[in-house]
Amino acid sequence: MFKKTVTAAGLALFAATPVFAVEGPFAVKEVDADTYFEAMENPNALDYYPNIAEDIESAVRARADMADDEDYRPINIDIVVTALRLNDSPVLTDEGEFNILEGIVNIRDTAETEADPVISEPVVLRAEEAAVSYPAFSPDNNAFYNAMVAAFAERAVALAESVDTLPDEGEVRN
After folding, report:
1. Burial class (CB in 10 A: 0-12, 13-18, 19+), 146
2. Residues 110-124: pLDDT tens digits?
3. What keywords are annotated for this sequence in UniProt (predicted)?
4. Which tens digits make up the pLDDT trace of 46-90?
5. How far apart are CA 66 and CA 86, in angstroms?
6. N or C: which terminal CB in the chain sees fewer CB atoms within 10 Å?
7. Residue 3 domain-assigned (yes or no)
8. Residue 134: inside a domain
9. pTM of the predicted model, to two decimals?
10. Is 126 in contact with 100 (CB distance < 8 Å)?
11. CATH code of the domain covering residue 68
12. Residue 152's domain spans which residues?
């Protein structure tokens, strides 16, 4: 009886042992952004905004805590811009006007090269005109584009900052 109790207690303690983890915050080692508009019919967004991936990547780098050689365990941010459209049409106006910017942000553990992302979240930004009781003016296309890129970058950085633990490198299997 005593042997069974001690064995059961030992197994309970072993099962309750926490998995080793590394606690954040984590600096960002790499930021990679790309576009993937192939799922849309007749998209012309890249005709007007050919550098959108690079612009988002630069905006994320400007806002993120970028890793240096002393950072023990950085993370990566991978972004895929999937849509830049006007309402439900993938074809922008002749002036390049749009009101929707969509993409997917993946936060990856640098120690797990083949693993699923730590976080994978779609980001959809949609701007709409609101009725106001005072005179209002819409921004020009360039200012609007910059504001949408900045908002997308801020969301990507917020997702990266929300990672608070990663498994210990000894627990990682590639």
Report:
1. middle
2. 887 777 899 999 999
3. Signal
4. 999 999 999 999 999 999 999 998 877 899 999 999 999 999 888
5. 33
6. N
7. no
8. yes
9. 0.82
10. yes
11. 3.40.50
12. 20-165
